[in-house]
Specification:
The structure holds 2 protein chains of 2 kinds. Chain A is mainly beta. Chain A has helices at 161-170, 182-192, 194-207, 369-373, 381-388, 532-537, 551-565, and strands at residues 2-5, 20-33, 38-44, 53-56, 60-67, 76-78, 102-108, 113-118, 130-136, 147-156, 221-224, 233-236, 243-249, 256-259, 265-270, 273-280, 282-285, 290-295, 303-309, 315-321, 432-441, 446-449, 460-463, 467-474, 480-484, 489-491, 501-502, 504-507, 512-518, 523-529, 540-546. In chain A, β15 and β16 (273-280) form a beta hairpin. Chain B has one domain: monomeric porin ompg (Porin, Beta Barrel). Classes of the chains: A mainly beta, B mainly beta. Chains A and B meet through β7, α1, α3, β31 and α7 of A and α1 and β1 of B.
Chain lengths: 566, 249
């Protein structure tokens, strides 16, 4: 049950009339039916995904979360700016919510846009414990739409999260069914020559790395709003309407390439923050990211929302249609992606200085000459050159095998296209840089930062008021969606003061990506790769923000709030 | 309210523009399971099979491995057996309990004990070994054994999996044993003792949990060991047709 209370209270810092809403969530064991299989999982208010939480900017929310499980739980409000003890990470924000207990979250909503929430305990999130958050802005939005839908993606797997983790530890390729086979050897040999193919296989075999290592966990059913491809979630529209689709990737492990054949998409928001509109045919949504797009179907026909996994091992599908029951053609999956030696780039200690996107540097003029000159330990340069003819995107290694391309040959969204509509912060020089190497060993399924797993790591200490430039150097062959809690991640997309403000930054293999953070939230926060099994294996840090508004002021603020709610 | 949050202007102004209800709560220490080393376990039967030899001998054979532990330390129980169905006797029965620690990106060191309790005399060995993934995807397990009699020997197991498809897998195995001294009581001569080579074609029927296979296995004894076997009236070479399943859970 959702009740909204309107209570006015006086505050020194806020307008006289403040919205306050009270919401109830229960955490329950549920059955999840993907159409392919039924699996017991965890949901909210009896369902997975949970309800769409609709808040209003400026509202003070009170959310009562009752744990009906027989284990601890937690809810993290992904992307929301709030006091650290409301952030919902067990061991960092608070101890968690015990079985049978109700925990009441209370925090002011200081932002607008599309976000989501999920459990931060164990593998409850992959098991289904997530939902969407939609925050209505105080003011007018810089774009128009007639209706909006949440399009929440997930990669539901028939195995529980615990079992997946265990299987990955036992056999890291347990779920990889896109490995290179004898057949592929011969087809590659026919295409590139026998010697080239043999040398290529030997070079990878020498590193004990797999070109096919794009998706760790395959065998899932892609779902949209809790419905599998055959169950076909359908959003209705009247021809000519503008529809805002709020894409949220709540997957445990899967990046999706999203397109709606027959419709142009205008990206207007990324990770809850408005961006200058970009028209695209397709976009890649990393795990935990959100993108809001506007589409305007003019004809009274059905359109397929097709979300193909980055490794092409599965897909999610939904439909936009004028009436229930209509459907459009569902595209075929494209060929599985293959990594190239370029994606291994940083593993050989290469300096990706050329990936530095600071200032208003023109991407197309970026110098990638170091890439071509590097020694690939016996790798045949002939086959390198071939891959270098492929598509390019400054956020992928030059010659990378996983640079996305639009299925219709059109425009594919790049991070380089994202420009803030209304920057949240003044642009200023960072006070210091912190380098974070994203590290791992696929054959042991260990994942870490700077070679140290969370269990052995000291916290990252930041000072309140500083602006930190984080340098992510991805030395692994996997793409990592890095998520800093509590403070915004300003992605260095080369747009200076217009750099987009995000909560999750995807770092492709063999690349260096920078983000800056205005350290404006005291307390302690989680900072981790949002791939569930990478985070659990150790690619995780605690960030402590030292200093900031002093404790007496804080107490006063809390007291005022509580007084007002009574 | 301004959407620009400036810290250049000082935190006082910043906090006035943006009232954050900072709770006066303690920053807790992370004692959650996430901060603990991830503990895992697994059970794998690399071989669980019925063997039929070229001289009509029937064997039930397994080679399995149970592990429990963290990235830094695992305990592993390896068990191998060859049961002669007609004789109702174990031709071979070997159990190893080892601790395993990583020593490089791809290799672990192992140390522990091995108990051989087949039909006939028993042996206990100290085990020291390395196991891991060699370049070009060869899985290697090399061990040094010292028996309670003081005899030393070494074993090398190598395996290569060829993916015909992502479900049909042809695996080639080679196990070789070398003895550095004779242990006549258990029929081991000095030098190369024996090899077992196998070729198995499997199909992953249920994930990688259940993969039935068929294959051929060749066992051969060499040198003094072969002579000892012949003196006992046994053979020195066997071909087997095998049918079985790889199991992992």
């Amino acid at each position: 049950m959702k009740t909204r209370l309107l209570t006015g209270f006086l505050s020194l810092l806020m307008p006289a009339l403040v919205l306050a809403g009270e919401y109830d969530l229960t955490v329950d064991r549920v059955n999840i039916d993907t159409g392919d299989f039924v699996k017991e999982g965890i949901g909210y208010n009896g369902k997975s995904p949970g309800p769409v939480m609709r808040f209003k900017e400026g509202e003070n929310v009170k959310i009562n979360v009752t744990n009906n499980l027989d284990e601890m739980t937690s809810i993290h409000w992904h992307g929301l700016i709030l006091p650290f003890d409301q952030d919902g990470v067990p061991g960092i924000s608070y101890p968690g919510i015990k079985p049978g207990e109700t925990f009441t979250y209370e925090f002011p909503i200081q932002q607008a846009g599309t976000y989501w929430f999920h459990s931060h305990s164990g593998f409850q999130e992959p098991d289904g414990a997530f939902g969407a958050i939609v925050i209505e802005p105080e003011g007018r939005e810089p774009f128009r739409y007639d209706r909006d839908y949440v399009v929440q993606l997930t990669d539901k797997h028939p195995h529980s999260g615990d079992r997946i983790m265990r299987n990955l530890k036992m056999m890291p390729d347990y779920y990889n069914r896109e490995q290179q086979t004898v057949g592929e050897f011969f087809s590659d040999a026919a295409e590139n020559g026998l010697m080239n193919t043999l040398q290529d296989r030997m070079a990878w075999g020498d590193m004990r790395m797999m070109k096919a290592d794009v998706e760790d966990v395959q065998g899932f059913t892609g779902m949209i709003n809790g419905m599998g491809p055959d169950q076909n979630w359908t959003g209705l529209f009247e021809p000519g309407e503008r529809i805002r689709l709020r894409f949220i990737n709540s997957s445990a492990m899967t990046y999706f390439d999203v397109r709606i054949p027959g419709l142009d998409m205008t990206v207007v928001q990324a990770d809850g923050n408005n961006v200058q509109p970009v028209n695209v045919d397709e976009f890649r949504i990393g795990v935990a990211e959100t993108y809001d797009v506007i589409v305007r179907p003019k004809d009274a026909q059905a359109y397929t929302i097709f979300a193909e996994s980055m490794g092409r091992s599965g897909y999610a599908r939904a439909t936009l249609a004028p009436e229930e029951g209509m459907e459009a053609a569902v595209p075929q999956l494209r060929e599985p992606a293959r990594l190239t030696m370029a994606d291994m780039g940083a593993m050989h200690g290469m300096d990706h200085g050329s990936m530095d996107m600071s200032g208003a540097q023109d991407m197309s003029e970026m110098d990638h000459s170091t890439m071509q000159g590097m020694d690939h330990s016996g790798m045949d340069q002939g086959s390198m050159t071939m891959s270098e003819k492929g598509p390019s995107d400054p956020f992928y290694a030059k010659g990378s095998g996983i640079v996305p391309t639009a299925a219709n040959g059109g425009k594919f969204l790049s991070y380089a296209d994202l420009k803030a509509q209304d920057p949240l912060y003044e642009d200023r020089e960072p006070t210091r840089e912190i380098e974070l190497s994203l590290t791992g060993n696929m054959e042991r399924y260990t994942w870490s930062i700077n070679g140290v797993k969370y269990e052995d790591a000291d916290p990252i200490r930041l000072q309140y008021g500083e602006r930190v430039r984080f340098k992510f150097v991805n030395t692994t062959m996997m793409t990592h969606p890095m998520h800093l809690h509590g403070m915004w991640s300003i992605l260095d997309a080369g747009a200076g003061e217009w750099n987009p403000v995000k909560h999750t930054i995807s770092v492709a293999p063999g690349t260096t990506v920078y983000m800056e953070t205005e350290v404006d939230a005291p307390g302690q926060w989680a900072f981790h790769c949002h791939l569930s099994y990478h985070a659990a294996a150790g690619m995780f840090r605690k960030v402590i923000v030292e200093g900031g508004p002093d404790a007496t002021q804080s107490k006063a603020a809390v007291a005022t709030e509580e007084g007002g709610d009574a | 309210m301004s959407r620009i949050r400036s810290f250049v202007a000082g935190s006082l102004l910043g906090s006035a523009l943006l009232p954050t209800a900072v709770a006066a709560q303690e920053m807790i220490a992370d004692t959650s399971s996430r901060k603990q080393p991830l503990t895992s376990w697994g059970v794998q039967f690399e071989e669980l099979e019925y063997r039929y030899s070229d001289d009509d001998e029937e064997l039930g054979v397994w080679s399995a491995d149970f592990f429990y532990g963290t990235d830094d330390l695992k305990v592993r129980w390896l068990t191998k057996g060859e049961y002669a169905i007609e004789e109702q006797a174990y031709e071979g029965l070997e159990n190893q309990l080892v601790g395993q620690v990583p020593i490089s990106d791809f290799f672990d060191a192992k140390a522990g004990v091995r108990f051989d309790t087949p039909e006939g005399p028993d042996r206990t060995y100290a085990v020291l070994g390395v196991a891991g993934l060699a370049p070009q995807w060869f899985e290697i397990d090399a061990n040094l054994y010292v028996s309670e009699e003081g005899d030393t020997s070494a074993g090398l197991d190598a395996e290569y999996e060829l993916l015909l498809t992502n479900y049909w897998i042809l695996s080639a195995t080679l196990d070789a044993t070398v003895a550095f001294s004779e242990d006549r009581e258990i029929g081991v001569g000095k030098g190369l003792v024996s090899t077992e080579t196998g070729l198995r074609l499997s199909y992953d029927l249920i994930d990688r949990a259940f993969s039935p296979y068929v294959g051929v296995v060749h066992e051969r004894k060499y040198g003094d060991t072969a002579d000892l076997a012949e003196a006992e009236g046994g053979g020195t070479e066997d071909w087997f047709a095998v049918i079985g399943a790889r199991i992992a859970f």
